[in-house]
Design a protein that fits this description.
The chain is of the alpha/beta class. The protein folds into three domains: 1-57, DNA primase DNAg catalytic core, N-terminal domain; 64-190, Dna Topoisomerase Vi A Subunit, Chain: A, domain 2; 201-267. It has helices spanning 3-8, 72-77, 90-98, 114-124, 136-151, 167-174, 176-184, 189-200, 207-222, 227-241, 245-267, and strands spanning 12-14, 20-22, 27-33, 39-46, 54-56, 84-87, 104-106, 128-130, 157-158. The chain has a four-stranded parallel beta sheet, sandwiched between helices. Strands 3-4-5 form a three-stranded antiparallel beta sheet, with no helix packed on it. A hairpin with a 5-residue loop joins strand 3 (27-33) and strand 4.
Length: 268
């Protein structure tokens, strides 16, 4: 291969001295194939401690991260159309495949895009499952990816992992049977965020802690997009946390109004 082409595709990097080095040196390599089974890029996981954990091929004429999905080619090859499980990383995909879950794919290290979501919808319609890592970054990514799917009228099923685990770690710790039980009882995005909300409550009498938690409740309510569903959650919150329902409704309306004013100022 011509050196200039190899550099353009991100296979090698030119150093300050003019020499070329392997972009993916000291890394386990994961070839990225498009839906037609053509290699279009690579992901690399470091095997040393002094590098970024993951490194992907840069954008090029043949590799657009936001338009492709890792392992989608395998699902198409196996003619799987009934459901798809989206995870964060290459290792999660491989681990799940090794455990017999062959309807799994992953994004490519970037925020999930609308083009990726439309590609998923094209093959799997509405039967989409999200299973991101159980840490704060994974929770944030779950909400962002869910929003992307909502924009194209797909409401994904959310799998919640405990203890900040990723799917690979969860199966190693609890086994495949327990993981399958999670798949059988997914949440919608509101149920997922409500569980996160409950876990955030501290066993404390501190006014500061309780104020922060109450504001988290109000923020949670702003993200629910129908009045009927919001009223159901207001009743649920009132019952579970001993909060006066009418006060909660009034505080929510004031909080939501303030939130919209802030958003309007940001746009202007």
């Amino acid at each position: 291969m011509d050196i200039e082409i190899a550099e353009e595709l991100g296979l090698i990097i030119k150093t300050k001295t003019g020499d070329y080095v392997d972009r993916f040196r000291n890394r386990i390599m994961f070839p990225i194939l498009n839906k037609n089974k053509k290699v279009i890029g690579f992901g690399g996981r470091t095997i040393v401690d002094d590098s970024a954990k993951y490194l992907n091929s840069p954008e090029s004429v043949i590799f657009k991260k936001g338009d492709n999905i890792y392992a989608l080619d395998k699902i198409i090859e196996n003619n799987i159309r009934d459901k798809v499980l989206i995870v964060e990383g290459y290792m999660d995909v491989i681990s799940l495949y090794q455990n017999g879950i062959n309807y799994v794919v992953a994004g490519l290290g970037t925020a999930f895009t609308e083009n990726q979501a439309r590609l998923i919808k094209r093959y799997f319609r509405n039967n989409v499952y999200l299973c991101y890592d159980g840490d704060n970054a994974g929770i944030s990514a779950t909400n962002k990816t869910s929003s992307v799917f909502n924009e194209i009228s797909v409401k994904p099923n959310i799998i919640m992992l405990p203890d900040k685990l990723d799917p690979d770690d969860y199966i190693k710790k609890y086994g495949l049977n327990d993981f399958n039980k999670l798949l059988e009882s997914p949440y919608d995005i509101n149920g997922f965020n409500y569980e996160i909300l409950k876990k955030s409550k501290k066993n404390s009498n501190s006014i500061t802690d309780n104020t922060i938690f109450y504001e988290s409740i109000l923020d949670f309510l702003t993200k629910i997009d129908t009045n009927i569903l919001r009223d159901l959650y207001i009743n649920k919150i009132s019952s579970e946390f001993g909060i006066d329902k009418n006060s909660l409704k009034e505080d929510f309306l004031n909080f939501d109004k303030k939130d919209k004013i802030i958003e309007k100022k940001k746009r202007n």
